[in-house]
Every structure is written in structure tokens, then in C-alpha cells.
TrEMBL record:
This is Cupin type-2 domain-containing protein. Coiled coil: none annotated. It comes from Sphingobium baderi. Residues 39-100 form the Cupin type-2 domain. It comes from the Bacteria. InterPro entries: Cupin_2, RmlC-like_jellyroll, RmlC_Cupin_sf. It holds the Pfam family Cupin_2.
Length: 112
């Protein structure tokens, strides 16, 4: 089954982290850009990986710790930029809602 991605001009609602049914979901994708509402629950983590494009993480709510080349912590209102290929892992210190954007700098959509 294909994931639903928003079409140009389509409004979508990002559910709040307080709703237990809120989960990670794809928002939009083109050959050069992807946006994801990333939800990581307290105590859960995303193992170390890297993305082939430039990426940003905006913390909508919660508290997450990033490990990798540079350790960082994100809380509500914090924004982070990572260069292509930067290794990172995410650990949720509290239920966390993040807006993830990936810019495929050379049109390469592969993630590893």
C-alpha cells in the first residue's frame, strides 16, 4: 500500500503528541524534498543512520537527544540542521514530536 503524501495546496493537520494514537507519518515527497511528522515516544529511539541529503529537525514538542558527530538536545521550539551523510541517532527523553525535512541535494532519494 502506498503512503499518502499531501498534494500541492493540500492542508493537513499534525496531531498532538498528547494523543496516544499520534504516530510518525509521511507528509510530502518530491524528487528533491521530503517532509515527515516524526513521533518518538519516551524511552524509544531511532538507531544510528545517515541520510544522503541535507536535513532539518524542528522540535514541535517534547525532548529528544541526538547522538552522532555532535551530540545535541532538542526541546520544543529548537531547530537543527545536518549536512548530508551526517550520522545520527535519536532518543526520546519524553514523548516527542518533530518535523523532519530532507533536501535531496543531488536528487538522490536513497536513505541508508
Amino acid at each position: 500500500m502506498a503512503l499518502h503524501h499531501c498534494q500541492s495546496g493540500e492542508v493537513t493537520h499534525l496531531d498532538t503528541i498528547g494523543d496516544a494514537a499520534t504516530v510518525t507519518r509521511a507528509l510530502a515527497r518530491t524528487s528533491s524534498f521530503e517532509a515527515i511528522h516524526l513521533v518518538v515516544r519516551a524511552g524509544h529511539s531511532i538507531p544510528a543512520h545517515h541520510v544522503s541529503g541535507s536535513m532539518t529537525l524542528y522540535c514541535i514538542s517534547g525532548h529528544a537527544r541526538l547522538e552522532g558527530d555532535v551530540a545535541s538536545e532538542l526541546r520544543a521550539g529548537d531547530w537543527l540542521f545536518l549536512e548530508p551523510g551526517t550520522p545520527h541517532a535519536v532518543e526520546a527523553m519524553a514523548d516527542t514530536s518533530l518535523l523532519l525535512t530532507i533536501m535531496f541535494d543531488d536528487g538522490d532519494e536513497r536513505q541508508t
